[in-house]
Structure formats: structure tokens, C-alpha cells
Amino acid sequence: MEFLPALHAEWIKIRTLRSLVGSLCTVLVVTASLAALAALDADDEAFDPLFSVFFGLTFGQLAAIVFGATAVSSELRQGSLRSALTAVPRRGHWFAAKAVAIAVPSLAVGLLAGAASLAVGRAALGADARGLSWSEGLRGAVGCGLYLTLMALFAAGLTAVLRSGVATLGILIPFLLIVSFVVGDISSSVADFLPDRAGQVVLHETWDGALGPWTGLAVTALWASAALLAGAWSVRRRDA
User: Fold this and answer.
1) How far apart are CA 167 and CA 65, in angstroms?
2) DSSP class of residue 209?
3) Is the CB of residue 75 less than 8 Å from the CB of residue 68?
4) Residue 185: helix, strand or coil by DSSP?
5) What percent of the chain clears pLDDT 70, i.e. is strictly above it?
6) Nearest-angstrom CA–CA distance, 221 and 49
7) How far apart are CA 231 and CA 59, in angstroms?
8) Does 221 or 128 have the greater pLDDT score?
9) pLDDT digit string (tens) for 186-197?
10) Which of 41, 84, 88, 129 could form a disulfide with 122 if both were Cys (CB 3.0 to 4.6 A apart)?
């Protein structure tokens, strides 16, 4: 089977699995709805209106990694991967099709979540949003979509390496919620290059670290690329 038919088959799988559709819906609902809490930070001395608007991404990214991990781990159950590789003997083609099928809906939902968060967050901030320019808001919305896509791909690659969605979530969720903050408290210069901290620079109005908005996303893209390459190697070398 060539790449495009393989991609179409992977897209059908994602579209018809309720757990995957539910994860994508959760990304949108959580990210956008929590933007309504933006006004709670308005009295903080370190108030960053842009990050407050996109506060929901902190939790929306968890649904994104669940989506990426589940999309791959669903193939590892009950011989599904063996069937997929029978239809697409070239394992690299299959994994590339899987990655694209994960990336496209993640990006679409991420951009929609970013636009919704911007609208909801600005409304919640009211007068406090006057210092937030539309160019910064647009950067944040686009950055939100790209960041969520990269985190979904990062989880997908790691799942292919570990061959377990549960193991992937057991590593990434504590890392995002706890470890990243602990490392940041110990050494901010090291934390700047962690996948979540680097990618979220695009959501800040100002940032004192070593990375800028787009270089930060580039670092996250490197993490995701490394995970996908390792995942592709694992799929090609291991038994189905």
C-alpha cells in the first residue's frame, strides 16, 4: 500500500475511535473554557495578560498527549499492529502515515482552541486586556496550535518506543505537572530547554530566558522529532 492510501486508512481509524475523538474534544473544551479564569491573575504583580489568556493550555496539553499516546497504543492491542503492517509492509510508511494522521487533527483542534481561548480570555480580562495587542494574541493562538500538535507527536513517538500508552502517560503527565516545575526551581537555564517550558515561551508577552517564542517552539519540535525518529526505529526493528 502506498503512502496516501495508508494515510487515509489511519485517518479513518482516528475518526472512528471514540476515545480519540473524545481526547480531541477535551483539548478544545478544557483549553478554551479555562481561559475564562484569566481575570484571576489580573491583580498579580507579575501579571502576563497573554499567558493568562492561554492558561487553559496547561491542562489542555494533557488531553493532547493522551490523544497522541492512545492513537499509537491502540495499534498494540490484540494484534492490530500486525494487521496494519500486513496491509502496509513498509513500516516506515505506516508510521509516517500514523504521525501525519495525528498531526493534522491536532493542529486543527489546537488552532481552534487557541482562537477560542483568545476570544474568551480577552473577554474575561476586560479592561486588563487593553495592553495585549492583536499581533501578540495571534502569535499566541498560532503558537497554541503548534505546541499542542508537537506535544501530541512527542507522546506518539514515546509510545512507539515504550510500546505502552500507560507507560507514556505515567511518564509525561507527572513530568508536565511536577518535574518541569521542580527543575525550573533548581535551574531555570536547564528548564528553558525542556519540551514544555520551551514551547510555552510563545504564550508569554515577555520572557527573560534564553529562548524566544519561535526558537522555543523549535526546541519542542526537536524533542518531538527525536521521539518520532526513535519510535520509527522501534517499529522497524521490533516484532509486531
Assistant:
1) 12
2) S
3) no
4) helix
5) 87
6) 25
7) 25
8) 221
9) 766 788 899 999
10) 129
pLDDT in tens, 100-127: 999 999 999 999 999 999 999 888 887 7
What grid cell was written down for 207?
520572557
Place of cell 514551547: 199
Cell numbers for 239, please give them.
516484532
Higher pLDDT, 122 or 84: 122
Spatial distance between the Cα atoms of 54 and 125, rounded to a whole number of angstroms? 12
Q: State what percent of residues in the chain have pLDDT above 90.
A: 50
For the chain, the farthest-separated pair of C-alpha atoms sits apart, in whole angstroms, at 59
For residue 44, pLDDT beyond 70 = no
Kindly state the cell numbers that stand for 9.
Answer: 486508512
Do 12 and 98 touch, CB atoms closer than 8 A?
no
Q: CA–CA separation, 232 vs 96, rounded Å?
A: 8
The stretches of the chain forming alpha helices (DSSP H) are: 3-16, 18-33, 49-53, 57-73, 80-87, 91-125, 134-162, 165-174, 180-186, 188-191, 195-199, 213-237
Q: What distance in Å separates the CA atoms of residue 105 and residue 95, rounded to the nearest whole number? A: 16
Half-sphere exposure of 115 (CA within 13 A, CB side): 5
d(C-alpha 180, C-alpha 174), whole Å: 9
| Residue 39 grid cell | 481575570
Provide the grid cell at 216. 522555543
pLDDT at 185 over 60: yes
Give the whole-angstrom CA distance, residue 124 versus residue 119.
Answer: 9
